[in-house]
Amino acid sequence: MNPNSAEPRIVYEGKYQRMVVRGTWEYSERTHAGGLAAIIVAVTPEDRVLFVEQFRVPLQARSIEMPAGLVGDVDAGESIEASAVRELEEETGWTADHAEVLMIGPTSSGASSERVAFVRATGLRRVGPGGGDASEDITVHEVPRAEAAAWLVRKMAEGYEADAKLWAGLWMIEHHLDGRRRG
Hints:
By secondary structure, this protein is an alpha+beta fold. It has two domains: about 1-30, no CATH class; about 35-175, Alpha-Beta Complex (Nucleoside Triphosphate Pyrophosphohydrolase). The protein is built from three helices and eleven strands; from the N terminus they run βββββββαβββαβα. The chain has helices at about 80-90, 150-155, 165-175; strands at about 10-15, 15-20, 25-30, 35-40, 50-55, 60-65, 70, 95-105, 115-125, 140-145, 160. A hairpin with a 2-residue loop joins β2 (about 15-20) and β3. The longest helix is centred in the middle third of the chain and has 13 residues, at about 80-90. It is globular and about 55 Å long. One of its GO terms (molecular function) is hydrolase activity. It comes from Stenotrophomonas mori. Keywords: Hydrolase. This is NUDIX hydrolase.
């Protein structure tokens, strides 16, 4: 029998995560509805990609990310699409007429059970200043799509952490999941 198929043992549980030991494996689990986060791939009508910058405690550094948030952390019955639009508006001040789930997959399958949904937001319009909720200090960056990759490389050279999922998000702006270029 595989020792890592043993019953899980919870060694710590907080508001949003728990630490679990299963056999010889240690990992974290999200405790909110479904253990799912949404990353929002959003381009403004002016062809600018929306990025957010915020200090991330685990890294002890400022990080560049696409807008994102936990699905179901406000309302356990909230859909992925509704969560994505809510987070987009909260973090960036932009809302979307449509949200489409592109794919769902693990964020770090060796360390966490969390999964992430890439969500394309379209029909964007500005409705507020963004910046996050009272517990967040988010800076919004609107970067011309043609310059986005170079901008990210510059930010990394300046010492910012850059979420690796950014590169997948940029690819999804330009391509369908089957590899065809978007028209």
